[in-house]
Amino acid sequence: MTTIATEKKPLPRISVVTPCLNMGCYIEDAIRSVQRQNYPDVEHIIIDACSQDNTLEILKRYRHLRWVSEKDRGQSDGLNKGFRMATGDIVGWLNADEYYLPGALHMIAQAHQSHPETDVFYGDGIYVDEKGHTIRTRPTHRFDYGILLYYGCYIGTLATFFKRSIFEQGLFIDVNYRVVMDFEYFVRLGASGKVFTYVPSLLGAFRWTGQNASMQSEKRRIERLRVQRTWSRLKLPDFGYDALSEVFRAKRILMKILNGNYRRELRLRSHAGAPTNWFDRAEARENCETLIRDYFGTSSNPQLVNTAAS
Fold first, then answer.
1. What residues have CB less than 8 Å from 240, skipping those under 6 apart?
2. What is the pTM of this model?
3. Is the CB of residue 186 less than 8 Å from the CB of residue 148?
4. Right CATH for 14-296 from 3.90.550.10, 3.40.30.10, 3.40.190.10, 1.10.8.60
5. What pLDDT does residue 189 have?
6. What band does 3 get if pLDDT is binned at 50, 70 and 90?
């Protein structure tokens, strides 16, 4: 009897790009969350915009980093610099005040192997406070261009990874947007036919400080309407887009009911207040592992398989 050996697919190289300006109080969490992933082929690129706090002192302590510190035209410009530097097959966007959860990179690598046609992968995340304590979870749903364009940006950048070929085609973030640059970018990629795949996993933590750029409501609305006027075929007055937002909000609610994510969100409320800085504290690591198990609803899940040695 002849045995045919099945060749295991090599894991893709992953680059993580982090823009930074005076984030010395948080940047080390982002760095360690990448470093402790137990992923064999990852590079972490940090684009610093001439920070005046202790950021550079921290960066110098981590010799594995690729980083530059120079003036730029804002966060989007810094991200674009990092995207151009990236050598990975897949490129993640991790802001300096955010961090990945255990097993995040392995989950994206597995999704890349299962869906080689995909250009943009995105998953779920959690909201945490300044100290890394859980506020709530943020589960979403499969990609829907109408919901994205008319409801708004339901895709979290901290749980988003791009195929590098997107940047090789010259598709970068528009530096003219200051608040909804992620929304505009995702809408533009969707309009160009790029394939988005939802990866149902808890990939990262978004730090809710009350000062996040995306929280600037009036500026956010102005830029959102600008994107909708540019890409919508309907060409409505502003109140028309506001009304459509409510229609697609209802569709989003229905999709989350059907995929079980509202039930999942309710199940995870018991974790509110738990620390999640798993790269620093054993207690927080146990909390994250319990959170991930409860997210999947089983102790046997793909996200924790490759994290034992991290």
1. 234
2. 0.93
3. yes
4. 3.90.550.10
5. 98
6. very low
